[in-house]
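To the wet lab folks,

You asked to see what we're planning to order before we commit. Fair enough. Below is the target structure as tokens, and below that is the sequence we designed to fit it. If anything looks off to you, flag it before the synthesis order goes out.
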């Protein structure tokens, strides 16, 4: 698992180069947004259960066939599994936000996810919708907290949806 700093240094070291202006700007941007990243991760930690619950409610309002008989979230066990997965996406997105790097998502969430979802017949579109709902909720919380430049919130959520969306079920 890497963060922005170790990834940047590793890339420059591998090329045998000193850090240049672009590297310094990247580091400056990462450190400038550091406190906001911590604030957002703290908000997520303090409100995770509520975020997941509300996002699940919104998802099932948008895609009600999921909770109808025969739907992928029909039965208590499947419903709970859906919310559990949403919680995983939220938690690991908060880690990636702090790190400023998506490696943790690839290593801990996305490896094997495609195969698992394919084998279980989990529909991708509702998964993507749920992830985007959580992203929007977190961005709203950040805006309410006065965090003006919250673009860093998009990165992990969008990365997950891009990677999961490449699966054709």
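Sequence we intend to order:
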């Amino acid at each position: 698992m890497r963060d922005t700093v170790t990834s940047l240094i590793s890339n420059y070291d591998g090329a045998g180069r000193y850090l240049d202006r672009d590297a310094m700007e990247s580091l400056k941007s990462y450190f400038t947004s550091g406190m906001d990243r911590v604030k957002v991760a703290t908000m997520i930690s303090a409100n995770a259960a509520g975020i997941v619950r509300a996002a699940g409610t919104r998802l099932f309002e948008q895609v009600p066939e999921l909770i109808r008989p025969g739907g992928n979230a029909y039965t208590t066990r499947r419903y709970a599994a859906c919310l559990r997965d949403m919680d995983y996406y939220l938690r690991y997105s908060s880690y990636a936000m702090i790190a400023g790097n998506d490696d943790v998502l690839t290593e801990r969430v996305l490896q094997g996810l495609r195969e698992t979802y394919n084998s279980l017949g989990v529909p991708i579109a509702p998964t993507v919708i749920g992830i985007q709902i959580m992203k929007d909720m977190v961005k709203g919380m950040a805006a309410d907290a006065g965090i003006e430049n919250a673009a860093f919130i998009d990165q992990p959520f969008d990365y997950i949806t891009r990677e999961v969306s490449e699966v054709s079920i």
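Structural context that might help your review: The helical segments are 4-15, 21-32, 34-62, 76-99, 103-110, 113-120, 124-144, 154-165. The chain has two domains: 1-32, 34-165.

Thanks,
Computational group
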